[in-house]
Design a protein that fits this description.
Blueprint lengths: L16 H5 L1 H8 L4 H11 L7 E5 L5 H6 L8 E6 L2 H10 L6 E5 L12 E7 L7 H14 E12 L9 H9 L3 H5 L4 H7 L2 E9 L4 E8 L4
Parallel strand pairs: 1-2, 1-4, 2-3, 4-5
Antiparallel strand pairs: 5-7, 6-7
């Protein structure tokens, strides 16, 4: 059956229930225990400064924000957005004693109110789970929220030819959100250029099938 990549109903991006409550454990398990090392390296590649203002689109359990916090001072600000009740509960509990970190219930594919407030916008394994129309809305939200010279940092699948990839990669994608198949065929840098970004830097992971892509909002800080 052919997947309709404009059909929001095929998305698996919203994680709820038992999967959400045990999400960090599942991520460790399905990556053969490599996920903690990978995500620490990826957060280091964000090049966080102590007083950074960071918007996280898809806060999840707060695991990534907890790693970011290792680089931050009390002059920083982190705002994490999510909609899953189990995810929100875990993240809000985790940062209850951190006044500069807040977690809010907010969809990221609707227009957000932030204008030029953040040094970095971070999104991890979320963008691939939306249809292209909604991905563009999310990119536009990031662009508006950033200060000139700020970075939109996308940790997600790289671009590659899925059809001719090794069997293990194709097997993983049979279990993935169907929209990820569409995502890996996109020229994401070209899309970001059209949305007002330049100054790209890329950090590959997992044999190049995953990458951290940082794109700078045009303009000077």
């Amino acid at each position: 059956m052919t997947t309709n990549y404009n059909d929001r109903s095929v998305s698996k991006v919203e994680v709820t229930g038992s999967e959400a409550r045990h999400y960090d454990f599942f991520m460790n398990m399905i990556t053969g225990g490599t996920y903690p090392f990978f995500i620490r390296r990826a957060v280091k590649e964000m090049r966080i400064q102590p007083d950074d203002k960071i918007l996280v689109l898809g806060a999840g359990t707060g695991r990534n924000i907890s790693l970011m916090n290792n680089y931050l001072s009390e002059g920083a600000r982190v705002l994490g957005l999510d909609i899953g009740p189990e995810m929100l509960e875990q993240a809000q509990h985790r940062f209850a004693d951190h006044p500069y970190i807040s977690i809010e219930d907010q969809r990221i594919d609707e227009q957000l109110p932030y204008q030029g407030e953040f040094d970095k916008v971070f999104i991890s394994f979320v963008l691939h789970g939306f249809i292209q129309e909604d991905r563009l809305k999310i990119i536009a939200n990031a662009q508006r929220a950033l200060r000139p010279g700020g970075e939109f940092i996308i940790l997600d699948y790289n671009e590659f030819d899925l059809e001719h990839s090794p069997w293990l990669v194709r097997f993983v994608f049979k279990m993935e959100c169907p929209l990820a198949t569409d995502f890996v065929g996109l020229d994401l840098q070209a899309i970001l250029k059209e949305q007002g970004f330049d100054g790209f830097r890329t950090h590959p992971h997992y044999l190049g099938y995953v990458r951290l892509l940082a794109a700078r909002k045009k303009g000077e800080k």
